[in-house]
Write a structure and sequence with these properties.
The complex is a heterotrimer.
Chain A lengths: L3 H33 L1 E2 L9 E2 L3 H8 L1 H32 L6 H9 L6 H12 L6 H8 L7 H4 L1 H26 L3 H9 L4 H28 L4 H6 L11 H10 L4 H31 L1
Antiparallel strand pairs in A: 1-2
Helix pairs in contact in A: 1-13, 2-13, 3-8, 3-10, 5-8, 8-10, 10-13, 12-13
Chain B lengths: L3 E10 L2 E11 L4 E5 L6 H9 L6 E6 L2 E2 L10 E4 L11 H11 L4 H14 L15 H13 L5 E5 L7 H18 L2 E6 L2 H7 L2 E6 L2 E6 L1 H6 L4 H6 L6 E4 L10 E4 L4 E4 L5 E10 L3 E7 L5 E7 L9 E6 L5 E3 L9
Parallel strand pairs in B: 3-8, 3-9, 6-7, 7-8
Antiparallel strand pairs in B: 1-2, 1-4, 4-5, 9-10, 11-12, 12-18, 13-17, 14-15, 14-17, 15-16
Helix pairs in contact in B: 2-3, 2-4, 3-4
Chain C lengths: L6 H29 L3 H5 L13 H8 L1 H34 L5 H12 L7 H10 L6 H26 L2 H9 L4 H30 L3 H5 L7 H6 L9 H21 L1 H8 L6
The chains are: A mainly alpha, B alpha+beta, C mainly alpha.
Chain lengths: 290, 334, 276
């Protein structure tokens, strides 16, 4: 048959990618599951034993875990709020006629392309340093005392850094969505006598509901595993104040060398991420049909 | 030589039968049009002949040889696509030359043939332009040039004029017909426009839901439609259908009479009715008449008729032009 | 005058937009300015904006440190290598899903995307242990492998969408013109896909360049790319702001330039088609 050879060829070409990703998914995950049932410390690697679900119980009841979970939720939630609440008006602004729009766009998008370690260190030192940072200087200008960010409000500091990095993402997505809005629909509303505000509330906002949902889901997936910014500024501290789940697992694995516990934690992270991913995949799947 | 025969050709996608048992003999050098409503399978049938889809059953013979297992590249056919499908990164020259390049012709031969084809189609000044710099009509001609330069056994056209504006379409219709006669190559042309079919074809294949309803010359289809479907499809405005009983012929399920064969009179004999809408085109008048128990009738008169909505009118059919259909929709031949 | 956007509105929008843009860009701008100051100026209070002694001594210092060059080189190898290998695996896969799809194709694609959603930290332990036991810690090859696998779903996805945009009938026209599959690929598909291939390459190079989880955890010195190098400035001694700024500017400048060209691809690549 004339078109059959393409079918066979197609399957052959797909195989390497599928096999690689399958191995990448399954092997580490299987190992994590295995390790999570062991008591295994890299400091004492001869002495390992099977402890079943003990690690999970320990991990989930560890007050450190609850703090980390709380920090994670606060971090993710705050960054989501900031990026969307600032990103939406910013996108609306960039959708207007602005002189030199492309340069403004470049300025707004730039933070996303800065590597996380650079962002974190620039914010920590040049901006947030309590004595010589730019923010400190601005505070003295208005007669307030400068905030010692990383001692007094470390989680907030991390939130600001991460939010700055992700604001361009939200803005860009929402701007793209705004630019794909049906102009004719807005014109019809105008003919029907709608004011600019009404058009925004009844046409634009519903149109943005879907992209906002996508932004929330995608940002959540990536924000759950914020790591570099914490690693480079606070190392999780002071105490546990900036430890999120990702950092907690990291510190258990590579600082305390407790493989069993870290694996259990890793699985918890995977489960949480999967829940969010389920919804995202559903939306993507629906779009693929269209 | 470009003689094409279809024997028992079937095509299904899963459980859906797109083409049901198609049998057709296309003479070498003839211009055959596949026509039918959307979804009737005419494009699928064309693509089966081209080799872009595989048949589920049956044989396709080109000059006596079954090509069902032969890939499209080797069937010796050319196709003109509805969207023209020009290679955007190649110039007009490159587009037309591509097929010859694939065939391995030496460069001087390719240049010669490309220039000849371009001259025929008035494309010579555009040879070095890219498709995006051309108008719709010019792109259309490049697509045709690409097809003719390979001197194929047959041309396959997939609704090539539907993306052109009305005036251009009429002009291109004439050019395509002239070209085909000049080259004397078999052409299979798919369209949903029955005016194109009637004006261009030597023979027409009317398709409906995957079945060939009738295969004949335009006049044959017009004067002797084989069934209700063909009768209603060919001819614009559509043929009037009335119930045989209501019209006084109880033995006949459906009676058909074309609008142009109804005599319009302001009084006298015939079927009485009230004009619902009157369209005055100057050259013709179309009357949409409410004829009571006979239903809505369309009548066409040559020239001006001073009738408007609400007027009483009498329509009498030309008895020689009445078509009769039985309960299965088949024509009753007398 | 009813339809024209009033001049006043344009100026208000422009002023507001530039203000927002400036505020957002400020940290980067401040960093670049600092890179041209002496360490003393960099740390001084009140901060000096434009009236300071401009010097390029920091850039000279940074570039003389052979380890900076070494780490930059690592970044290029790791980001470039992982992206190229990902492209080589992804192109046939995306081709097959775009041009000879089966009933399963959509599910396979969604599954591939879901592998990107797996949190890296979830498999930190086994990957670290495997790398340690195979001697792959602090090796460029190891990083290339991990980053390749991490970005593979995005590369495949982006190429899939670009291939899908190539009108099917142009490829069929090539087939009718006598092209075999190979020639169809070479003469028609690839030239038409080049812009898409370039964008995918660019965006993923950037994502790999900025990757800061696996690079931080799986490399220390030999294979460490710039992400790790900059991180080492987090616990230094003495005045270092100007040097940090210079090193950072060098590390991010090319990426921001490249990033400018990949804006549209960013939306396409990272929203997985959920936003058009």
């Amino acid at each position: 048959m004339a078109t059959q050879q393409t079918q066979v060829l197609g399957r052959a070409l797909l195989t390497p990618a599928v096999v690689l990703l399958f191995i990448w998914m399954i092997v580490p995950l299987a190992m994590t599951i295995y390790f999570s049932t062991l008591h295994y410390s890299l400091l004492d690697s001869e002495n390992w034993s099977f402890v079943g679900l003990e690690n999970f119980r320990y991990f989930l009841t560890d007050p450190a875990f609850l703090t980390a979970l709380q920090n994670t939720l606060v971090l993710v939630g705050s960054v989501l709020a900031i990026t969307i609440l600032l990103g939406t008006p910013l996108a609306l602004l960039l959708d207007q006629q602005v002189v030199g729009r492309s340069i403004v766009r470049l300025m707004v998008i730039a933070p996303f392309f800065v590597m996380p370690t650079v962002s974190a260190l620039v914010w920590k030192n040049l901006l947030m340093h309590p004595v010589s940072g730019l923010f400190a200087w601005i505070a003295t200008l208005v007669g307030a005392t400068p905030i010692d960010w990383f001692n007094d409000a470390p989680l907030l500091a991390v939130i600001l850094i991460v939010a700055w990095q992700w604001l361009p993402f939200a803005t860009l997505i929402l701007l793209t969505a705004l630019q794909s809005q049906d102009e004719e629909q807005k014109e019809a509303a105008e003919m029907d006598g709608a004011s600019a505000l009404s058009t925004f509330i009844y046409l634009t906002l519903p149109h943005l509901a879907r992209p906002i949902t996508v932004v929330i889901l995608i940002e959540t997936i990536f924000l759950l595993t914020v790591f570099a910014e914490i690693f480079v500024t606070t190392g999780g501290g002071p105490g546990l104040q900036t430890t999120n789940i990702a950092f907690l697992i990291y510190s258990q694995a590579l600082i305390q060398y407790d493989v069993g516990n870290a694996s259990a934690g890793g699985l918890v992270a995977v489960v949480i991420a999967n829940i969010v991913a389920f919804f995202l995949v559903r939306i993507v799947g629906r779009n693929l049909e269209a | 030589m470009g003689q094409i025969t279809l024997q028992g050709v079937r095509k299904s996608f899963g459980a859906v039968n797109i083409i049901k048992d198609a049998n057709l003999e296309i003479d070498d050098g003839s211009f055959v049009v596949f026509v039918g409503p959307s979804g009737c399978g005419k494009t699928t049938l064309l693509r089966l002949i081209a080799g872009l889809e595989d048949v589920t059953g049956g044989q396709i013979l080109i000059d006596g040889k079954n090509v069902v297992d032969v890939p499209p590249a080797k069937r010796g056919l050319s196709m003109v696509f509805q969207s023209y499908a020009l290679y955007p990164h190649m110039s007009v020259r490159g587009n037309i030359a591509f097929g010859l390049k694939m065939a391995g012709l030496p460069r001087p031969d390719i240049d010669r043939k490309v220039e000849a084809a371009a001259a025929t189609l008035n494309l010579t000044p555009y040879l070095d332009r890219k498709p995006r710099e051309l108008s719709g009509g010019q792109r259309q001609r490049v697509a045709i040039g690409r097809a003719i330069v390979r001197e194929p056994k047959a041309f396959l056209f997939d609704e090539p004029l539907s993306n052109l504006d009305a005036a251009l379409r009429v002009q291109m219709r004439l050019e395509v017909t002239k070209l085909q006669k000049q080259l004397a190559t078999t052409a299979i042309y798919v369209t949903h426009d029955q005016v194109e079919a009637m004006t261009m074809a030597d023979k027409i294949v009317v398709l409906n839901a995957g079945r060939i309803e009738q295969y004949g010359s335009p006049l044959e289809l017009y004067e002797h439609p084989a069934n209700l479907f063909v009768a209603g499809f060919i001819g614009s405005p559509k043929m009037n259908f009335l119930s045989g009983e209501a019209a006084g012929e109880p033995g006949v399920t459906t009676l058909g009479i074309r609008p142009e064969h109804l005599r319009i009179a302001k009084e006298g004999e015939g079927w009485p009715g009230t004009v619902s809408v009157a369209e005055h085109l100057g050259s013709d008048t179309f009357l949409y008449v409410d004829a009571g128990k006979l239903g809505m009738l369309t009548a066409r008169g040559i020239g001006e008729f001073n009738l408007k909505a609400g007027d009483r009118v009498w329509l009498s059919p030309d008895p020689a032009r009445l078509h009769r259909f039985d309960k299965d929709g088949g024509a009753i031949r007398t | 005058m009813a339809r024209k956007v009033t001049a006043r509105r344009v100026w208000v929008s422009t002023a507001a937009a530039w203000l927002c843009g400036f505020l957002i860009f400020l940290p980067i701008l401040w960093m670049v300015l600092t890179s041209f100051k002496t360490e003393l100026d960099a740390f001084s209070m009140p901060p000096k904006f434009l009236l300071f002694h401009w010097t390029t001594e920091n850039y000279a210092t940074v570039q003389q440190r052979s380890d900076y060059v070494h780490h930059a080189f690592n970044s290029i190898i790791v980001a470039g290598g992982s992206t190229l290998i990902a492209m080589i695996i992804a192109i046939p896969a995306a081709w097959s899903m775009a041009f000879s799809p089966t009933k399963r194709t959509k599910d396979v694609l969604l599954w591939m995307l879901s592998t990107k959603m797996m949190p890296s930290v979830g498999v930190l332990v086994p990957i670290y242990l495997i790398f340690r036991d195979l001697g792959m810690l602090d090796s460029r090859g190891g990083l290339v492998l991990i980053l390749c696998l991490g970005n593979l779903p995005i590369v495949i996805w982006m190429l899939f969408t670009y291939f899908k945009e190539i009108p099917k009938d142009i490829l069929e026209a090539a087939r009718m013109d006598g092209a075999t599959i190979g020639r169809e690929l070479v003469y028609v598909l690839t030239p038409m896909a080049v812009p898409g291939l370039a964008s995918t390459l660019l965006l993923n190079f950037i994502l790999a360049w900025n990757e800061a989880f696996w690079t931080l955890n799986l490399s220390t010195l030999d294979a460490a790319p710039l992400t790790v190098f900059i991180a080492s400035y987090s616990s230094p001694e003495g005045l270092f702001w100007a040097k940090l700024s210079a090193a950072s500017t060098l590390a991010i400048a090319p990426i921001i330039v490249l990033g400018w060209f990949t804006q549209r691809q960013l939306v396409r690549g990272l929203t997985f088609g959920a936003v058009k």
